[in-house]
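Quick board copy: two proteins, each given as sequence then tokens.
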Amino acid sequence: MEFIPAAIPEILLIEPKVYEDPRGFFMETYREAEFNARGIPSRFVQENQTRSTKGVLRGLHYQIKQAQGKLVRVTAGEVFDVAVDIRRASPTFGKWVGMTLSAENRRQMWIPEGFAHGFYVVSDRADFVYKVTDYYAPQWERGILWNDPALGIEWPLDGASAPVLSQKDLEGKLLADAEVFE
């Protein structure tokens, strides 16, 4: 696997080595020693999967306590995946990184604690799988508004319509008003 730091270096793009032949393909998606050598914890406590249709935007989510590091990938379809640095003391506070993850490119992204996370579905359907370093705790879940002008995230929206959002995501806060990591 190749681990490529993003513009915010704590965010890592992980490109697997894929072995293909007429039968299909093989790839490793996780190897503890390689991940640990790059500062990615080896203890994941929960794995989740979502299926979403084109135009769905999920996020920007985080847990202010029981913070979660996330190892994310797409097993069907394509998404534009975003992580926003919400660590107030960080030199990249309020900056974001966006990457295309798809079943075709087989990339993963590591998002450590201290980041808000979201994705937008570009394909007709997408299956999104993510491992987390702490359990889901709804009482600590928070959200930042996906279109906060202070963030300036360049979502690849289909020009014909607004993204499909949950009520929770419609009620997200502006970064200026959100609880963040100190």
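And the next:
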Amino acid sequence: MERVHLLIVYTGNGKGKTTAAMGLLLRSLGQGGRCAVLQFIKPDSLETGEKRFSRKLEILWENFGEGFLWDQESEEPTRVACRRGWMRAKTLISSEAYDLVVLDEFTYVLKQGYVSIKEFSDYIEALKGEVKTPHIVITGRDAPEGLVDIADMVHEIVEIKHPWRTAQIPAQPMIEY
């Protein structure tokens, strides 16, 4: 069967976008795939369960962010970090070294204009027909329409009920990070 690389997006206001991407990463590893995760917006100091486990498995995991935008006086350090991450993403995607590359929280990078939709879509378009291009998984809220248009698969994660909203229960290890 011919392998066709896919652009997959997990978006929406519900919890589970990164979790879904990690499920694909696990499935890919089970098929002998080589995987990388580039996490945007979130700083390298953020230690999540999936990041710790990925490193134990020697999966490439790199962060390109300075923290949540609402906590910053200036977006400039985040913009610079995200641009650096985008350059790194293009290098990894083009390297033929990976079967799956996750760009976690990348919808924010596009939404904020740190990388324009045109620049991104032109890059994706140039990959068409390349046999060894990895599947690319993008996560984050508010996926821009241009991203949805070019994606092969888009899933919207919708919050129905969350314990933080219903009972002010804080984020729980193993569930949210």
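Board note added afterward: The beta strands are 7-11, 35-40, 60-64, 100-104, 135-139, 153-156.
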